[in-house]
Each structure stands twice: as structure tokens, then as C-alpha cells.
């Protein structure tokens, strides 16, 4: 076989469900995968497979030069007794039947384990995958295959294993059938993702009309968009069409849909004479900061050792009480509950009420999740790795000014206590945001606060972010930058300044989300040249403070914010699209399915 091709070994005596073979042979997320009687490897694992096959004879025993049949049989018995050898019901072999002797794919999979190229072994559950040893075992296996509704199992497995209450009980029971309909017509998850974006943008356009009929249509279309948003992931799991590009599109479009709808509501309210752009921008800032808290905490503890705490243990015990699981998932206001809330309020109330309720709900959810994570961080004894520290540094988005300050202040920062970085970030971020909100329009005190912010933000990242609460540094920086923009645009009272600020925050937030998705995909953060060109969070805060002081009393401030938003959007979007498309075309490994807390 050509070296660039994927290959599979399947025992001719295999009996099982088609979907069991599909899980082993067609899932693009893993370099190698196996079920009893079948093994597949992608090009990256081909050398390991060749090495394993070189040590096996055609009947699945180990080939040792000069060894007789007795020696080969002894080594085959050792393979079958290996701890990781597929057997029993855990990997789909039929209970009560012994696997057939000399199953070459199973022996090769065991040798791959021994070489460190461990194949992925999908959890088959009630699906059957076995190589029967005799006619009776074959008959039993065939009867077991017939007794299972394979399509029902496949549909159940298409639904995300961990999701919110609204999604689980109000969307997934029928969206899985939409996913199957799409699969049977050859539609791809990326096409469904794009359709979801289009529907959401139409919903935003309906909301922008400012009419009651438009608001009702917007609510209905937003829910339809969410159904498609669930369908694309279920289609990917149903048909095993995972891809790095698809994961990026799904995550990026989720944010674009929600924030475009905020803008549509604000435009619709303006048509009725109600200016809610500050509330719309506040909702986007709060939601983005919530996500940064989630991302930073997870990355800080991604591969930490000794990562236990009494708080985490209590959470695990509560998970054993059924009703508490759903209550805790609803409290955090995940995407399903949040979009349902927005859709219903849009249809039956006003944009102002929608944003006020949304802000209150998101603020309570943010307090709940952040407090729990702070308690976990204070009570656990976790040793964070260099990878985690680098991820937090990348999420901090420090520009050239903060980098220069960090180099100068590194000896001093090394002597500060463990909780200094988040405290410094909180104090300096609070200073610039509060000054921007309380100072009169055009005040140069905001520029002075921004200069202090530049120095202190460099001090906060001058040493590796490995402290127990250092994961709070990126969220504090995001709140400082976004909050300062919101405050300056609101205080200046310049026409259209708030919509321009909304666009600028959206462009910057996209850059920060893109950084997260690259880190999650294992591809690293965006190039440092891009981060420096974008100015870093401290450089942008200083620039906007200078613009506000110089232009706050006329429309030049709106023009400056608009130009800055367009320039940043073009910069980050061009590099992001180039990176993800080239990664997709270059055969980057497919991103693993997300099963954590819903966004």
C-alpha cells in the first residue's frame, strides 16, 4: 500500500455490527484504532504497524528466528494474556465465547501497545465485535448482532455525552434525526454549521427591524439556528466526520451568531428610540470574560499533577445525586439555556429587558463558576507544568510594551509572593477601568492610568504563571481592556461611539478566541508577530485612552474606533483563516470531540 494511505487489518472470520467496524476503521481523530478482530492505522502509525507485523507470522503468533512451533505458541499465549489484549465484553467481544486463535489484528494491536503506539479502542457498549472460534460461537455472535438495534445505538451515540438541560431534553431528542437526514443526503457538518450561521444572521436582521413581528421572528429563527448548531456536532459523531477546520468553524460561528444577535437587538431598539448599545456591549464583554475564565482555568490544570482538592471531591459526590447535576449545569447558563432565554425574551419583551435579564443571569453564573474555581485552586495541591504556564502567557496576550517591562522587572517579580500576579493584574485593571468610567470625557487622567496599566501588566507576567491563582491573570486583562473601551465610549457621549466600540471589542475578542482554539487544537498560539502587530492588550488600552482624550468631544473618536476595529479585524481574520485552512488542507489531526461543560 502507498505510504500516504490509511490501512486496515480485519480478520475474515469477524462477526459484528457495521458501526463497530466503522468506529474502528473510519474515525479520523486517531492514528490507530482497534476492536476485536479489526485494526486500522493512519500513515503516522504505519511504521509501528510494519514493525509489529514483522514480528508476527500469518497465524498471529510471534515469529522468532530459529524457534519451533512450541516456542511460537508459547509467545502467542503470552500475547493473549497481556493486560491490554482485547478480550471480554469491554471491547465488544461476545460474552461467553472465546476469541478464535491466531487473530492477527488483535496480536498486532497488542504489539502496538507494547511499542507505545497504543491504538484507540472505542467503547462499543452493546455493539458486537468478535472473531468466533467455532460454529457454535459464530451462531451465538450472529444472534447477538440481530438482537441489537444498531441504528438506535448509533443515534444515541451521536448526542453529546455531557450537555445542558435544555439541549438534552428539548433539542437533542429530535435534532439527532435531523443529523441522520443530513448524513443520508451527503451533507457535511461544515455545511450545517454554515447554515446555522446564516439562519442566526437572518434572525439578527429580523431583530434589527425593531417591530414586534420582527422580534418574534428573530426569537424563532434563533432557536432554529441553535437546532442546527446541535445538529452539526451530532452529524459529525453520527457519520464520524471530524475535522480541525470543522471544530474551528463551529466554535467561531457560535460566538459570531450570539454577538451578531446582540447587535441586531441594539439596532432594533434604536429604531424605537431606545439606546441599549451599552447593554449589548456589556453583555458581550461579560460573556467573553466568562469564557476566558473557563479557558484559563482548564488550561492551567490541563496536565497538572497532584490535582486534587476537597472542593473537587465534593463536586464529584454531588454528581452522584441526579437532580443536582442538572441544577448545577443550568446555573452556569450554558449556551442552550442562554439562547432559549434570549429567544423567548426577544419575542415577548423589549431589547432592554432582554439585555438586563441576560446580564443579571450571566453575572450570577460568572460569580458561581469563578468562586468555585477559586476555592478549588486554593485548596488543591497542584503542580503546574511549563506547558500550562506557556498557555496562560499566550492567553494573557501581552504586547511589546508589556514584554519590555517584563524583561526589566523580572528580578523584582521573582521576589514577590505567590499571589502577586493576579493581584497586580486586578488592581491595575480596576484602576484603568474605574478611571475611564469616572473621569470626565476627554480627561488625560485615563491616559495616566493606561500608562500605569502598561507597567503593571508587564510586571504581572514577568515570571512564569504557575501560582495557584495565576489563571486569573488573563481574565483580569480581558475585563480591563474591554471594560475600558466600554466606559470610554459610554462617557464621551459621541454619536455612534458605542456601536464602534462594539465592533472593536468584537474584533479583539475574535483574536482572543482564536488563540484559545489554537491552543486547544494542540497547534500553539498565534505567531508573536501577529500579537505584536495587534499591540497586545496593554498597547490597545493605551492607544484608545489617548484617542479618547484627544478626540472625545467630536465624531473623530467614532471614526478612530471604527478604523481601528476594521484594521484589527482584517489583521486577525486574515491570519486566522490562512492558518486554519492550511492546517486543514495539510492534513492536521482532527480535533477530539468536546465533552466538557457546554459553552
Automatic annotation (TrEMBL):
Residues 386-599 form the DUF5941 domain. The keyword Transmembrane applies. The chain crosses the membrane at residues 353-375, 416-438, 444-462, 542-573. Keywords: Membrane, Transferase, Transmembrane, Transmembrane helix. One of its GO terms (molecular function) is phosphotransferase activity, for other substituted phosphate groups. Residues 75-94 are annotated as: Disordered. GO terms for biological process: phospholipid biosynthetic process. Residues 75-90 have a biased composition (Low complexity). It holds the Pfam family CDP-OH_P_transf. One of its GO terms (cellular component) is membrane. The keyword Acetylation does not apply. Belongs to the CDP-alcohol phosphatidyltransferase class-I family. This is Phosphatidylglycerophosphate synthase. It comes from Actinacidiphila rubida.
Amino acid at each position: 500500500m502507498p505510504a500516504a494511505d490509511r490501512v486496515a487489518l480485519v480478520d475474515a472470520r469477524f462477526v459484528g455490527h457495521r458501526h463497530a467496524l466503522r468506529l474502528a476503521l473510519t474515525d479520523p481523530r486517531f492514528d490507530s484504532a482497534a476492536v476485536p478482530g479489526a485494526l486500522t492505522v493512519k500513515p503516522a502509525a504505519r511504521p509501528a504497524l510494519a514493525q509489529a507485523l514483522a514480528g508476527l507470522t500469518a497465524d498471529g503468533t510471534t515469529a522468532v528466528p530459529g524457534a519451533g512451533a512450541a516456542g511460537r505458541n508459547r509467545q502467542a499465549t503470552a500475547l493473549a494474556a497481556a493486560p491490554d489484549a482485547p478480550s471480554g465484553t469491554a471491547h465488544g467481544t461476545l460474552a461467553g465465547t472465546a476469541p478464535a486463535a491466531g487473530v492477527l489484528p488483535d496480536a498486532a494491536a497488542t504489539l502496538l501497545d507494547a511499542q507505545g503506539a497504543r491504538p484507540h479502542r472505542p467503547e462499543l457498549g452493546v455493539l458486537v465485535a468478535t472473531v468466533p472460534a467455532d460454529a457454535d460461537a459464530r451462531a451465538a455472535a450472529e444472534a447477538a448482532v440481530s438482537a441489537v438495534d444498531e441504528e438506535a445505538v448509533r443515534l444515541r451515540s451521536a448526542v453529546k455525552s455531557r450537555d445542558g438541560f435544555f439541549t438534552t431534553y428539548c433539542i437533542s431528542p429530535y435534532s439527532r434525526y435531523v443529523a441522520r437526514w443530513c448524513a443520508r443526503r451527503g451533507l457535511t457538518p461544515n455545511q450545517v454549521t454554515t447554515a446555522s450561521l446564516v439562519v442566526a444572521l437572518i434572525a439578527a436582521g429580523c431583530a434589527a427591524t425593531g417591530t414586534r413581528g420582527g422580534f418574534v421572528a428573530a426569537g424563532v429563527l434563533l432557536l432554529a439556528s441553535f437546532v442546527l448548531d446541535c445538529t452539526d456536532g451530532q452529524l459529525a459523531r453520527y457519520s464520524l466526520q471530524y475535522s480541525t477546520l470543522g471544530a474551528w468553524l463551529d466554535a467561531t460561528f457560535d460566538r459570531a451568531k450570539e454577538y451578531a444577535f446582540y447587535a441586531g437587538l441594539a439596532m432594533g431598539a434604536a429604531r424605537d428610540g431606545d439606546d441599549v448599545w451599552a447593554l449589548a456591549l456589556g453583555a458581550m464583554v461579560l460573556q467573553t470574560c466568562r469564557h476566558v475564565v473557563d479557558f484559563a482555568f482548564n488550561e492551567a490544570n490541563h496536565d497538572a499533577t497532584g490535582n486534587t482538592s476537597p472542593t473537587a471531591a465534593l463536586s464529584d459526590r454531588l454528581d452522584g445525586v441526579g437532580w443536582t447535576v442538572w441544577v448545577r449545569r443550568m446555573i452556569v447558563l450554558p449556551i442552550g439555556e442562554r439562547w432559549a432565554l434570549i429567544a423567548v425574551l426577544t419575542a415577548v419583551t423589549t431589547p432592554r429587558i432582554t439585555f438586563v435579564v441576560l446580564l443579571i443571569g450571566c453575572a450570577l453564573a460568572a460569580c458561581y463558576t469563578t468562586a468555585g474555581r477559586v476555592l478549588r485552586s486554593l485548596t488543591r495541591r497542584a503542580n503546574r507544568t511549563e506547558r500550562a504556564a506557556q498557555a496562560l502567557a499566550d492567553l494573557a496576550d501581552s504586547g511589546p510594551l508589556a514584554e519590555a517591562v517584563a524583561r526589566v522587572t523580572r528580578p523584582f517579580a521573582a521576589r514577590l509572593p505567590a499571589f502577586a500576579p493576579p493581584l497586580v493584574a486586578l488592581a491595575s485593571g480596576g484602576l484603568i477601568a474605574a478611571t475611564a468610567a469616572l473621569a470626565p470625557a476627554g480627561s488625560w487622567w485615563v491616559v495616566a492610568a493606561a500608562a500605569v496599566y502598561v507597567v503593571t501588566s508587564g510586571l504581572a507576567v514577568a515570571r512564569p504563571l504557575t501560582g495557584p491563582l495565576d489563571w486569573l491573570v488573563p481574565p483580569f486583562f480581558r475585563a480591563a481592556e474591554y471594560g475600558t473601551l466600554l466606559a470610554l465610549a459610554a462617557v464621551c457621549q459621541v454619536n455612534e461611539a458605542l456601536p464602534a466600540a462594539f465592533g472593536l471589542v468584537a474584533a479583539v475578542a475574535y483574536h482572543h478566541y482564536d488563540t484559545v482554539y489554537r491552543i486547544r487544537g494542540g497547534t500553539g498560539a498565534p505567531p508573536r508577530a501577529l500579537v505584536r502587530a495587534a499591540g497586545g492588550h496593554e498597547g490597545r488600552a493605551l492607544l484608545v485612552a489617548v484617542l479618547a482624550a484627544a478626540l472625545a468631544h467630536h465624531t473623530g473618536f467614532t471614526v478612530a474606533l471604527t478604523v481601528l476595529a476594521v484594521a484589527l479585524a482584517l489583521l486577525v481574520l486574515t491570519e486566522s483563516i490562512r492558518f486554519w485552512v492550511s492546517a486543514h488542507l495539510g492534513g492536521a489531526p482532527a480535533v477530539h470531540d468536546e465533552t466538557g461543560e457546554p459553552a
